[in-house]
């Protein structure tokens, strides 16, 4: 079928069974996506079997809460970030910590702490990690009282809420920065996340000849009145998957140095990096 015939078909669909105005934006998006699908079916000669297998695939992914995992896995979430970067550059808004993907594992409502927090529930497994920083506006000035939402996986790569063996809001906190914009936290060193074995996302990635692993990372939302909200992550350096992330989230500027206790002792001898905790 040629595209002219497809467009005529779409015209007919749009004018059949009409009961109201509908939503123009949704109408435009739906028409475009259906058209693109029809053209793909035509060009790739997609069979009925393939069509229904695809539909059932997405139904299963939805039932198992994996649609949010497929979107980063096929690069769409990173693509959205690149578009936001582009729009900001055009608007003359540059600099600051780079954004990167949110992923599907944020949970709202984490406990709020002032200035500093311990993110783990007191567990002894895993390596202790501490992180501190200052939230600054694009003008470089500290943002007093900025909200720093942090969430990350445990030492087995699992996130509380989704991994029901963890306590509620384990490794999830909202830290309110102090009057100088400072925040700090103690936690357990995360391990990279992997897509659920045998799940919809992993099976698709297998068919693409790809793995479903992420390097170890810590997520952040940083927000304050009068400022754009930043969605970002840091990666833990030296992870084998650092630049081989199935979700394409690693970016220059988001891989801070990790200092071991031995490094810190040496730095303290030099009078830098005052330890806390
Ligand atoms: C994650 O932990 C994540 O951050 C993303 C983007 C996708 C899947 C799991
Ligand atoms: Fe994550």
Automatic annotation (TrEMBL):
The keyword Iron applies. Keywords: Aromatic hydrocarbons catabolism, Dioxygenase, Iron, Metal-binding, Oxidoreductase. Residues 131-159 form the Intradiol ring-cleavage dioxygenases domain. InterPro entries: Catechol_dOase_N, Cchol_dOase_prob, Intradiol_dOase_C, Intradiol_dOase_core, Intradiol_RC_Dioxygenase. PANTHER family: DIOXYGENASE, PUTATIVE (AFU_ORTHOLOGUE AFUA_2G02910)-RELATED, INTRADIOL RING-CLEAVAGE DIOXYGENASES DOMAIN-CONTAINING PROTEIN-RELATED. Belongs to the intradiol ring-cleavage dioxygenase family. This is catechol 1,2-dioxygenase. It comes from Pseudaquabacterium pictum. The lineage of its organism: Bacteria, Pseudomonadati, Pseudomonadota, Betaproteobacteria, Burkholderiales.
């Amino acid at each position: 079928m040629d595209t002219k015939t497809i467009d005529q078909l779409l015209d007919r669909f749009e004018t059949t069974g009409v009961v109201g105005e509908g939503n123009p934006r949704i109408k435009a998006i739906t028409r475009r996506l259906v058209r693109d699908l029809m053209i793909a079916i035509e060009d790739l000669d997609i069979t009925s079997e393939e069509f229904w297998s695809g539909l059932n695939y997405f139904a299963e992914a939805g039932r198992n809460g994996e649609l949010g995992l497929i979107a980063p896995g096929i690069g769409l979430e990173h693509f959205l970030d690149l578009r936001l970067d582009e729009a900001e550059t055009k608007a003359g808004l540059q600099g600051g910590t780079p954004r990167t993907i949110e992923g599907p594992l944020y949970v709202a409502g984490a406990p709020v702490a002032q200035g500093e927090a311990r993110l783990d529930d007191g567990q002894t497994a895993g390596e202790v990690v501490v992180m501190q920083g200052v939230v600054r506006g694009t003008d470089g000035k500290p943002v007093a009282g900025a909200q720093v939402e942090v969430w990350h996986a445990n030492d087995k790569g699992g996130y509380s809420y989704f991994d029901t063996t963890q306590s509620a809001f384990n490794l999830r906190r909202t830290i309110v920065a102090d009057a100088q914009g400072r925040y700090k936290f103690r936690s357990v060193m995360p391990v990279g996340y992997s897509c659920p074995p045998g799940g919809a996302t992993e099976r698709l990635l297998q068919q693409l000849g790809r793995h479903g692993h992420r390097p170890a990372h810590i997520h952040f939302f940083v927000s304050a009145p009068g400022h754009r909200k930043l969605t970002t992550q840091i990666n833990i350096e030296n992870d084998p998957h650092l630049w081989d992330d199935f979700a394409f989230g690693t970016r220059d500027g988001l891989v801070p140095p990790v200092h071991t206790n031995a490094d810190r002792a040496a730095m303290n001898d030099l009078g830098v990096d005052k330890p806390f905790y």
